[in-house]
Give the backbone structure.
Amino acid sequence: MPPPFAVTGASGFIGSWVVKLLLERGETVHATVRSLTDKSKVEHLQAIANESKSTLRLFEAELHDSEGYRKAFDTCQVVLHIASPFKVQGVNNPVKDIVEPAVSGTRNVLDAVSRSASVKRVVVTSSVAAIHCDAADHPEQALNESLWNETASETYQPYSFSKTQAERLAWQMAETQSQWSLVTINPSFVLGPSLSNRVDATSVDLMLQMVDGRAKRGLPDLRLGVVDVRDVAMAHVLAATLPDAQGRHIVSKQVVGLPEIAERLRGIYADRYPIPQSTVPKALMYVFGPLMGFSIRYVKRNVGVPFSIDNGKSMQALGLNYRPLEQTLKDSIDQLESMGLISANRKSHG
């Protein structure tokens, strides 16, 4: 029997899709979750396994403790480390809540890998946030895998700082040994349907705001690299299974502004939802941005500031094919509707 694949953070947005794709390939999967008794973290994984003919084994593991990971990694040749805190706003202690868990978690996972006699490859989920901090960082250059985020800190964009520090540590640890090779996946903002019914993901909230009326008075000209979660998951599987995969891989479909996302949604749903139709001027964002959690510095360096992303390596080295943005948006909204979180045939009146 082929050796199993280990997936950390298996119950999360990306991790669940990675588990599904591996099981569909006929692989045995060792999946780690924070709690085996929390139904929201395990029910959908068990349902995915029941629909396949492959084997899923669940393990309880915390980022601050490597012991659970050691058990999960036993006999595995590939570890996909996806678990990491993702919090952008409403964080009281960025160092304790974001930076330390991301960095120490990566260290603990890779320590467990190094103590395993079987693991030969590790795929770490990093982020485009480890490549740049603000849209204004590289005005004359498309983002590529040679770049590193040099401007985030514990106090400014701490999530970006956490992903940068965690990936740097991963590469440092990889260079000190020869047992396993490291490949990283650096996705941009991940959208698309979830395999669980959890609605606490940042991408889910963004889609809800687009159609539930909260943002109907307008959106800032904030541009994002966006990518479908299913494409991100496939990138992980390809990085885990292609013998020649190496280095960092930006995974991003395209750069798109929030007003353009709204325009695409209107093209799909017409007046079924109160989708925003106007763009908030940057001058107003300087006034109201801080009330929304956006600092003046962030507004200056991101709102209305163009940037571009080079995703060529993901397509050439991994053979990744990206879904159209419209498909991603439609599948996201249709799922929210099926979950009863939004209702169609609502019209904007403001």
